[in-house]
Each structure stands twice: as structure tokens, then as C-alpha cells.
Amino acid sequence: MIPLPTFEQLSTVPSMATTALLFAIFWTVSLPLAEKKIALKLTDAAWWPGAVSPTKSMMYNFGYPKEPTKRFPDGVTESLARDFYSGTISICVAHALCATPMVPVLIRGWEDSSDFIKVSFVLGTLADLGFDIYDAVQLSIRAFAKNHSKPIPIEFWVILVCMHHTTALLLVMPLNLHYVHRFEYHQTAVSLLYAASACYLAGAYKFTLNVYEKRKDFVLYKII
Q: 20, 80, 173, 208: most buried, per Cβ within 10 A?
């Protein structure tokens, strides 16, 4: 078992950068495998045919074309929708996994936390930074590479890479260097990651509900 570094060892720019890159490699290997497994499960799910249409509607909101285009000659296919849905699930799980090691320091407070708890918090933030590095790179490739098997529209790239991932890419390491002891940082990091995870998991779940034939599902859909 690889021993955990101490908080002091992890509190330097080279250590944090190296750790974030290692997490990026981890996500590069694990997330595509998870997405593929989820996508395969969807093909056998009885509710999936009913979830395709709302999934496509969500994709249209992110810039995917409603009609065939040069980049999307077949439009938004069932396969693309399945990949989008499985990607959403895996990203939500990744966000929750990053947030979980941060919880103890939020509960105990920085001063009363052990070195292990402090290291866990920093590792959680760097795991999220590693995810953002991985996702920014793979989305950029999918947005600009010609004839990619899983292309994304430029609008989607702008929203996720330029407007979303830049928060962690620009702020995680400076915050860890200068404000890692602040309760506001702990609260913001944990709440944002868990909120993102819960929001899109709930959104993905509501697509599984049969709102046309079951009143209970319709009410639950509206509640969500």
C-alpha cells in the first residue's frame, strides 16, 4: 500500500500538481470504462426507450443539433444519447467521490482535524482538479478533432470547458495554498460537488419514470 503524504508534504505546488496529474490519469482510465459499462446496461433497461427523447432534449439545450449537420450527419442518434446519459451518471459519481474525503474536515473544523483528515480534504480537491484536467482535454479533442466518433458541439465545449471547468482549474491550487484552513472553502467545495452530483443524478433518474401511464411517476417527476 502506498503511504499517504503528510499535509506538509502535500502543501507544495509541485506535490499538488503531480497529484492532480496522477488523478487525471486515473480518471482517464476509469471513467471511460464506467461509461461503457453503464451504456451497455442501458441497452437492456426497459425504461431506456422512454428516456431517449428527454435525454435528446437536454442535449439540444447544450448545443447539439436538432437536424443532421456536417458534424452530426445522422443528427442526435440513440447511441449519442446513450453515451451522453452514461457520461452524466459517471461524472456525477466522480463528483461525489471527490467530495466525500472532504466531509470530515467540514464537520470537525480545520484546527481540530488530524493530519490524515487534512490530507484527505486536499486529496479530494486534487481529485476534482484531476477530473477537470481529464475532462477538459477529452472534451477539447472531441470538439475540435475531425471525424471523432463521439463529437460534441462547440457550444457544449464552451459551457463545460471555458465556463465550468475553469473554476477548479484556476482556483483549487491557489485556495489550497492560501485558504485551505478556511471553513468557507470547505463548505463551498463540498456543497458544490455534492449539489452537482445530486442535481444531475436526480435529473437522470426522472427520465426513467413513466409519466404518461403512472400518476405516481408523474408526481415524482414534478417534485424532482
A: 20
Task: Extract the C-alpha cell encoding 154.
Answer: 462547440
CA distances 79 to 30, 100, 203, Å, are: 21, 32, 19
Task: Extract the C-alpha cell encoding 39.
Answer: 451504456
Mean pLDDT of the chain, nearest integer: 94
Three-state DSSP class for 109? coil
**Residue among 101, 106, 100, 104 at smallest CA distance from 187:** 106
Evaluate whether 206 touches 219 at the Cβ level (below 8 Å): no
| pTM exceeds 0.90 | yes
N-to-C CA span, the chain: 42
Q: In one letter, which amino acid is 150?
A: K
Where the chain has pLDDT below 70, the residues are 1-2
Give me 52's grid cell: 431517449
Residue 126: Cβ-neighbour burial (10 angstroms; 0-12, 13-18, 19+)? buried
pLDDT value of residue 146: 87
